[in-house]
Write a structure and sequence with these properties.
The complex is a heteropentamer, with one copy of chain A (286 residues), one copy of chain B (318 residues), two copies of chain C (361 residues) and one copy of chain D (264 residues).
Chain A (H helix, E strand, L loop, with lengths): L1 H29 L3 E3 L3 E3 L5 H7 L2 H35 L2 H17 L1 H12 L4 H8 L13 H25 L3 H9 L4 H29 L3 H6 L7 H11 L3 H34 L4
Antiparallel strand pairs in A: 1-2
Helix pairs in contact in A: 1-12, 3-7, 3-9, 4-7, 7-9, 8-9, 9-12, 11-12
Chain C lengths: L5 E10 L2 E11 L4 E5 L6 H9 L6 E6 L2 E2 L11 E3 L11 H11 L4 H14 L15 H13 L5 E5 L7 H18 L2 E6 L2 H7 L2 E6 L2 E6 L1 H6 L4 H6 L4 E11 L2 E6 L4 E5 L9 E6 L5 E3 L8 E11 L3 E8 L4 E7 L10 E5 L5 E5 L5
Parallel strand pairs in C: 3-8, 3-9, 6-7, 7-8
Antiparallel strand pairs in C: 1-2, 1-4, 4-5, 9-10, 11-12, 11-14, 12-13, 14-20, 15-19, 16-17, 16-19, 17-18
Helix pairs in contact in C: 2-3, 2-4, 3-4
Chain D lengths: L5 H29 L14 H8 L1 H34 L5 H13 L2 H14 L6 H25 L3 H9 L4 H12 L1 H17 L2 H6 L7 H11 L4 H31 L1
Helix pairs in contact in D: 1-12, 2-12, 3-6, 3-9, 3-11, 4-6, 6-9, 7-8
Classes of the chains: A mainly alpha (286), B alpha/beta (318), C alpha+beta (361), D mainly alpha (264).
The complex binds adenosine-5'-triphosphate (ATP) (2 copies) and magnesium ion (MG) (2 copies).
The site of one magnesium ion has 4 residues of chain E, from helix 1.
GO cellular component, one term (chains C, E): ATP-binding cassette (ABC) transporter complex
Keywords (chains C, E): ATP-binding, Nucleotide-binding, Plasmid, Transport
Membrane topology (chains C, E): Peripheral membrane protein
């Protein structure tokens, strides 16, 4: 068994060892160093950076738990937005499909930096979004989106959705249409056939998308940096600030170690759940 | 032989000015300049790794680098132009200021009818959701905090009153945001969303040159917060002589004037002559304006800002 | 609900330029067992799939229980269906596959458990409840597909070659079980098969299709004994064709002059006009071979060129002196005739059928 | 079965609203790009100045070129590394699979800022501080997990007998991979490549640290630019990219369509 | 290259607790045609897949051309293979599917074109070159799978139910074509089928499998006439079993006392010990039914309970007075015996086989 698997896994694992594991050793080591006088790094062996974060409820609630919540929320909304789109695209072909794909990918292609232009115009106090909502009588006072967590979530959804569409599409397309027909035949309407057949069979793609987007959201720093304000203490942004604005590499490293562990735990949880529910049944072994 | 000098710069217009003036240097010294473009922190990191020769820095970085022993002393013998520096433009034997801008109080003339005279204006209730300031870990905001501490019975060593004031500002709902991206502040003034706020002079110029006529600026009585570009030579510079020559070149009146007129970064040398007809002359921190810069002890700020931020976060959110 | 019939009226399906099903009409009466039989690619699956609602007809009308269902979604048609390629849901176990339809009908758990067990027992799959489809052999998968349809006890059942991957013994058993179930439950059944034996033994009537069209609809005996066309004769069972012209026709007795000049006598029910070009059909099992000279009506001579052994039967290919190849089957034999032997071929006039020669009409 | 019933109408509706959501800011960006005064809506005029500026900037053009080459190379490398791993993950069950799965995800778990910083320091230490290798490696390693995930998902629905059939007629593993496996999982592969390319194309933190002086990718150039110079040049650049990719899509569709016509 | 044989030596495959193939041994000589026959799920496909190298055996040895190939990758084994589920490459047209192997062999274009055309003609698929697999009917797909293997003119060919989805007429034709091709090219062939007729008519020898094990390996005639076990007798053709005890044995003549007390006489080749429990096998086609009283050896009486019509044959089920059900097949009949009629059943002693009763041994 290992004879067949090892050659397959070794290129990726080797690359990870060389270019992730070794560099991360440095990060790990740095997390025990000290920042002296807020300016320069002193070699040390202290747990200070960890205790500073982990014993401070404010950090735990407003940074860690906050990031997890926002990441989960944005990921969930992305999934809800992406699924119908993927379903629809899977049914199209030719030019229509290409156009839809292009539209889906466009936000990614342009990149966040420039898109923020458009979003400012939409989000600002008297911007399009507020004008529209007020015109539609959803609310009557302008609501703050820009430099606010609402805007951050909307943007995370905006960026996450195309990733999920992409990773779902292939799984949905490969579902044998006979399987849906068979379900319809035993009395499932479209909706039931979708829930019982298409959805479970699309879970590999969904899971892939979920993991990717969750991780992206959890570690996000560019979106909170540009759309959020000082209150938006997403952990990715905090790390970025500590490392690059405050020069506090030791603390940033410690935060990274914490973040990687939390993220790994969450993903392990997700994969255990997904595996239990469905993935293990789809694994192609003969 | 192949001579290359690695110089850090910020991208965009700063780099553009640098490149424009550097051509002459390259020809004269027969040495190519490799621009190491990046955000301020990159400059420090690259310096730590010995990837650069001349470092264009923020003052904060220069101080950190000094503590870590990254720089070599600037030798006035090799950098004759150092003689022309204003006295307060020499931070230490390692660090001098290359140029200086400041953060002024910008306001919308249509909505702010009386010219504001003090930074305290930002707290006024009528400006709900109309004020912009820089993010709380940026120098101007930190300086404002210290300023407020001093005005409210504290000092840089007892910054609590300042933090309370800042928390008050945050909770007042006046702030549209405390932003990390400067260019967004410009657009807020442009669209009329922001009525009042801090703005770097360089951004102010941008606004004006875009034809925005209803935004003006004032230097409040407490003084303005400086935006300092410092310069250092790396201790392991490959070619120290060439590095010194380049620093000397930066301090030449020619380059100083170029940065002043193109980027609104005021000269730090006395002999730089700004043309009288220069359109944005008021925006430059010239001669005596230097003295009015509010420049609290940068080292203390650096040492304490992490703690301050955390305190402020807690005060503002609870 | 009393009228569980299917009417197919002039249904057509085109794929681009190619017509897969061409104006096909037939019907299946309440409780009737009708088979669709025809060569590979003749349009059987397509017809069935149109009835089930998986394929939109290009034209024509479909009625189930007297109601026009041509444009009804599949889940509203309430038809059982067994897929040719099984279409088992890969993420469900055998039991889940079978239970799915029952769950949709909101049956209670015990009821479902019992029905699933029953369907799996019928198809010989007890003990495989918790396997996933990919852990089953081809035949086992096919039986799950069958069990899945049967568990719902459909009043109208469509099956697409549901036994094609089973061994003969199992097929015979399953065939019986199916037939018995169908008779007991009075299921209206349309059964696609490529196996004529299956079609003949199970069906009340058989629809023979060829190249997208219906060739004949008839009861099995009728089909075998009185094929309407050469195609049917050839497809249903094995047939020998000998071309000739009718030279005398008196009452039930007809004389046909073969190409070789030899005369054959036949007994026919329909009157045949003198001089018509006909093809005489002789079923191989009606042929008697003798290794010694024989006398009487309808004796032809030839040479055995191939002898094939099938256990219960021996099949000889005989090259007649006219050059035609004639097949003969012998059951209950005690000796072989060696390849190369000269033989006398006897066919009694009652076992000779005549059909018009549509080849050069 | 394209019948007009409620669920398919609903699906269509949702899809088109999502499309509207996705392109709304882009449309605004487009308007911004032709508006003489940015951020002021409704537009107060029409100008192509921003486009002109964008396309006459050597920095941007070079940045674009760098990003393009880098994105393609990194996407290819990442997928080449990911594919065998994905095959192992999708096809076999082995002890420790969960762990391997997680290990392969690590570049995704580590904050990009930290990862790229660590990588930068690492490369300097091993003596490859400058040059293209660190940049390429950084991009490739960062996007690899995406490729692993998407390819694994693709391969889970793959009927292994396709491969067996190919092996049987004499195709070796490699040939089977290229002639059968990859074409069959085409959509997944294209998704993966596209995603990887886009991730690399948009990446900022890794490039900031790892790009050698003359190889600055577009996002870094753009960020540096707008950080200090807030005008619609960036918007014009973005708009050009959208238009370019739209044209490319149509052209590819025409070509692919043509091929299909020629074949049948 | 001169020895294109296959040796299977004690091969075993376990899936977890379940043993799919259990210590199976047999061999296929150069140019020989051997069939693997057995009920659904008995391990045929698994055995074949192990030989082809798609499944790793849990134990045992495989030799092809005298060489140990147990751990050789599939592409090195140089065996033709036809998949039970077709495994056509969905992204390639019919022609591309067939041409793929040839392209790998770096043949020139004209050669490939000709070979593809030839293989498609053999399988009756000319004109379908540019279709994609999903645009074909089930039977057409199966034929493409066959064409794909044949185009390579393999010296050793493994086929997994390659004709299961074809109609009888086409199957008979294809069977002939295949057999002829095999004979002409002297292909060493291992053929999995669930169709005993196919196995008997095509093979030099047949391997009968049951529950993962080999029951008998023998030539068709031998298998049918002298089944080694009850399973084989039952599986290959239809058999009536009547249990009894040997009461007298003299020379070739043996007398068996049935449970009902009636005596049957049989002629056997092997000596049988007195008092052995045996089962008497009677093939249905060896049974003669008379509606009038008959006299002589081996006459049993009973009542017809079911008459099935299969075109060329009529099958009766007779309930003997002892209660046993006996099947009789009549070919070449001219009249039916009505269900319910009383009948006299005659079996000549030469057509009675005896096997030890392993059920209660
Ligand atoms: N992956 C698997 N896991 C567990 N059991 C399996 C697996 N694959 C096959 N089996 C079992 O092994 C046995 C033999 O399967 P195989 O496919 O060889 O049967 P077969 O003789 O080809 O039957 P058929 O005629 O129905 O195709 C079956 O009982 C099947 O359920
Ligand atoms: N999607 C399609 N596009 C084009 N032609 C098709 C398509 N589906 C089926 N056909 C063609 O329609 C004809 C009828 O197909 P169908 O599947 O109904 O045959 P069938 O009678 O079920 O045959 P079999 O016994 O081989 O399964 C075939 O010639 C087939 O090639
Ligand atoms: Mg079919
Ligand atoms: Mg099988």
């Amino acid at each position: 068994m290992t004879r067949r698997i090892l050659p397959l896994l070794s290129p990726a694992l080797l690359a990870l060892l060389l270019f992730v594991a070794f560099p991360m050793v440095w990060v790990f080591r740095t997390s025990f160093n000290e920042l002296a006088e807020g300016a320069y790094i002193v070699e040390a062996m202290t747990l200070e950076n960890y205790t500073r974060f982990l014993t401070e409820p404010w950090y735990l609630v407003n940074t860690l738990w906050f990031s997890v919540r926002i990441a989960l929320l944005a990921t969930a909304i992305s999934v809800i937005c992406a699924y119908p789109v993927a379903l629809y695209i899977a049914k199209t072909s030719g030019l229509q499909r290409n156009v839809l794909m292009a539209l889906t990918m466009a936000p990614l292609l342009i990149g966040l930096v420039t898109l923020v232009y458009g979003w400012i115009v939409i989000f600002r106090g008297g911007g399009l979004m507020n004008s529209l909502m007020i015109a539609l009588r959803v609310y009557d006072q302008p609501v703050r989106y820009m430099w606010d967590i609402k805007g951050v979530v909307i943007l995370l959804v905006y960026i996450g959705t195309p990733y999920i569409v992409l990773s779902l599409l292939d799984s949905i397309e490969r579902i044998n249409p006979f399987l849906v027909e068979a379900a319809r035949n035993v009395g499932a309407n479209r909706w039931t056939a979708f829930w019982k057949i298409v959805f479970p069979l699309s879970t590999p793609g969904l899971y892939a998308g979920l993991v990717i987007v969750f991780s992206l959201n959890f570690a996000a720093f560019a979106v909170p940096l540009m759309i959020g304000d000082s209150n938006t203490q997403m952990i990715g942004l905090v790390i970025y600030r500590e490392a690059l604005l405050n020069n506090d590499l030791p603390f940033a490293s410690a935060l990274s170690v914490i973040m990687v562990s939390v993220n790994a735990l969450l993903i392990l949880g997700m994969s255990a759940l997904a595996g239990r529910l469905i993935l293990s049944r789809l694994e192609a072994k003969r | 032989e192949d001579c290359a000098l690695r110089v850090t710069t910020w991208g965009g217009s700063y780099q553009a000015t640098y490149q424009a003036v550097a051509q002459k240097f390259e020809e004269e010294h027969n040495c190519r300049i490799e621009w190491v473009v990046g955000a301020s922190p990159d400059h420090l990191i690259k310096a730590r790794l010995g990837q650069v020769d001349v470092v264009t820095n923020t003052l904060l970085n220069s101080i950190a680098g000094e503590k870590e022993g990254l720089w070599q002393k600037l030798d006035p013998a090799k950098i004759p132009n150092m003689a022309n520096l204003y006295p307060n433009a020499v931070h230490s034997p390692y660090t001098v200021f290359a140029n200086v801008g400041d953060y002024v109080l910008a306001y919308n003339k249509d909505t702010v009818t009386t010219v504001p005279a003090t930074w305290d204006e930002l707290w006024k209730p009528e400006y709900k959701n109309r004020v912009v300031i820089y993010g709380i870990d940026h120098i101007p905001t930190l300086s404002l905090t210290v300023l407020q501490a001093e005005k409210n019975g504290g000092s840089i060593d007892n910054v609590e009153p300042g933090l309370d004031r800042m928390a008050e500002l945050i909770k007042s709902g006046n702030l549209i945001g405390s932003l990390d991206v400067e260019s967004q502040m410009v657009s807020l003034f442009e669209t009329g969303d922001a009525w009042l706020g801090m703005l770097a002079t360089g951004r102010m110029k941008e606004l004006l040159s875009k034809g925005v006529t209803n935004v003006s600026f004032v230097r409040p009585e407490e003084g303005t917060f400086p935006l300092i570009t410092s310069v250092n030579i790396h201790k392991d510079a490959k070619n120290p002589a060439m590095a010194a020559a380049f620093v000397n070149y930066i301090l030449s009146s020619e380059v100083q004037v170029a940065f002043a007129t193109r980027n609104l970064y005021a000269p730090t040398v006395k002999n730089a002559e700004i043309p009288d007809d220069f359109e944005f002359r008021d925006l430059l921190v010239l001669n005596d304006a230097f003295g009015r810069l509010y420049l609290p002890d940068q080292e203390k700020i650096t040492a304490n800002k992490a703690g301050w931020q955390q305190q402020l976060n807690q005060k503002a959110m609870r | 609900m009393s009228n569980d019939s299917i009417q197919v009226e002039g249904i057509t399906k085109r794929y681009g330029a190619m017509t897969a099903v061409d104006n096909v009409s037939f019907d299946v009466g309440q409780g009737e067992f009708v088979s669709l039989l025809g060569p590979s690619g003749c349009g059987k699956t397509t017809t069935l799939r149109m009835i089930a609602g998986f394929v939109d007809p290009s034209g024509g009308l479909l009625r189930v229980r007297g109601r026009d269902v041509t444009h009804l979604p599949p889940e509203k048609r309430d038809l059982g269906f067994v897929f040719q390629n099984y279409a088992l849901w890969p993420h469900m176990t055998v039991a889940e596959n079978v239970a799915f339809g029952l769950k949709l009908r909101k049956k209670n758990r015990n009821f479902i458990r019992d029905k699933v067990a029953e369907a799996l027992t019928t198809t010989g799959l007890s003990g495989y409840e918790n396997r996933l489809p990919r852990q089953l052999s081809g035949g086992q998968q096919q039986r799950v597909a069958l069990a899945r349809a049967l568990a719902l006890e459909p009043q109208v059942l469509l099956m697409d070659e549901p036994l094609s991957n089973l061994d003969r013994a199992l097929r015979v058993t399953m065939r019986r079980e199916l037939k018995e179930l169908q008779a007991r439950m009075k299921m209206t059944t349309l059964y696609v098969t490529h196996d004529q034996e299956e079609a003949l033994s199970m069906s009340n009537r058989v629809v023979i299709m060829n190249k997208g069209q219906v060739e004949q609809v008839a009861a099995p005996f009728e089909l075998y004994e009185n094929p309407a066309t050469g195609f049917v004769a050839d497809f249903v069972g094995i047939t020998n064709f000998l071309g000739g012209i009718v030279t005398s026709a008196e009452g039930g007795g007809v004389e046909v002059k073969l190409g070789s000049g030899q005369m054959l006598r036949a007994v026919t029910k329909q009157p045949v006009a003198l001089g018509t070009k006909v093809r005489a059909l002789i079923r191989p099992e009606r042929v008697t071979l003798k290794t010694t000279a024989a006398d009487g009506d309808n004796i032809l001579t030839g040479q055995v060129v191939l002898a094939e052994y099938f256990g219960a039967l021996l099949r000889y290919s005989v090259r007649l002196d006219s050059g035609d190849i004639l097949r003969a089957e012998v059951h209950n034999f005690d000796s072989f005739i060696e390849s190369g032997s000269r033989v006398w071929v006897c066919v009694s006039p009652e076992h000779l059928r005549l059909i018009p020669d549509e080849r050069n009409a | 079965m394209t019948r007009w019933d409620i669920s398919s109408i609903a699906l269509r509706l949702v899809t088109f609203s999502m499309m509207a959501f996705l392109i709304f800011p882009i449309a605004v960006t487009l308007i911004v790009a032709v508006n003489p005064r940015e951020f002021v809506l409704p537009p107060n005029g029409f100008t192509l100045d921003w486009f002109r500026a964008a396309w006459s900037s050597k920095t941007f053009l070079r940045g674009m070129g760098v990003s393009l080459v880098l994105g393609l190379a990194a996407a290819l490398i990442a997928n080449a590394l990911a594919l065998p791993a994905a095959i192992a993950l999708a096809r076999t069950n082995f002890p420790g699979k969960g762990a391997i799965n997680l290990i392969l995800m690590t570049p995704l778990l580590i904050p990009t800022t930290i990862l790229s910083l660590a990588l930068y320091i690492y490369f300097v230490r091993v003596g490859y501080g400058s040059g293209l290798v660190p940049l390429l490696v950084g991009h490739a390693i960062h996007i690899m997990p995406y490729a692993v995930r998407i390819l694994t998902a693709s391969l889970l629905n793959f009927d292994p007998s396709y491969e067996e059939a190919a092996r049987n007629v004499g195709a070796g593993r490699i040939r089977t991979l290229f002639s059968v496996t990859l074409p069959v999982i085409r959509t997944g592969l294209i998704s993966s490549l596209t995603l990887c390319f886009i991730l690399s194309w948009n990446d900022f933190p890794i490039s900031v640290f790892l790009a050698p002086p003359s190889w600055t990718p577009l996002p870094v150039e753009l960020y540096s630019y707008i950080k200090f110079q807030y005008d619609a040049v960036a918007a014009a650049l973005a708009s050009s990219l959208i238009l370019l990719s739209a044209v490319a899509m149509v052209v590819i569709d025409r070509l692919a369509g043509l091929r299909r016509v020629l074949r049948s």
